[in-house]
Write a structure and sequence with these properties.
Elements: H1 3-16, E1 29-35, E2 40-49, E3 52-61, H2 64-77, H3 82-96, H4 104-107, H5 120-142
Antiparallel strand pairs: 1-2, 2-3
Helix pairs in contact: 1-2, 2-5, 3-5
The protein binds zinc ion.
């Protein structure tokens, strides 16, 4: 199996069996964002314990990339501090912008999103969940 095929498998797996899908109650922040270019929708729920992302879940619909990326994001971010989560989101954004190679040791399965870089219209799909996360972290930090 080529690396590209492996990446596709990871994305399809998360699309078919999304992690942390559904509402999270109680939550500290709920944010709804969409990607009008593709019709993707994400509602993100985050619960903080002090500075830590204690719980995170999402509702949404849209293309496989947007939903799989959100699923992968929630799986990776749960248990991290807000600062670590934001750093990870920024790292993903740089990878998707082609500014960073994407380190498998740090990012794990998330490097599979890199396969999308070849399809510029899909980059917004892949980043929808991550951009929503960054906003949610900002809001959570205010309280
Ligand atoms: Zn999309």
């Amino acid at each position: 199996m080529s690396l590209e095929e492996l990446y596709k498998e990871v994305i399809l797996d998360h699309y078919r069996t999304p992690r942390n899908k559904g509402r999270l109650d109680p939550h500290d922040v709920a944010l709804e964002r969409n990607n009008p270019l593709c019709g993707d929708e994400i509602e993100l729920f985050v619960r903080f314990d002090g500075d830590t992302v204690e719980g995170i879940a999402f509702e949404g619909k849209g293309c496989s990339i947007s939903q799989a990326s959100a699923s992968m994001m929630t799986e990776k971010v749960e248990g991290l501090t807000a600062k670590e989560s934001a750093a990870l989101a920024e790292s993903i954004k740089r990878m998707m912008a082609g500014e960073e190679e994407g380190d498998v040791d740090t990012l794990g399965d998330l490097v599979s999103l890199k396969g999308v870089v070849k399809y510029p219209v899909r980059i917004k799909c892949a980043l929808l969940g991550w951009n929503t996360l960054l906003e949610a972290l900002q809001e959570g930090g205010k309280g």
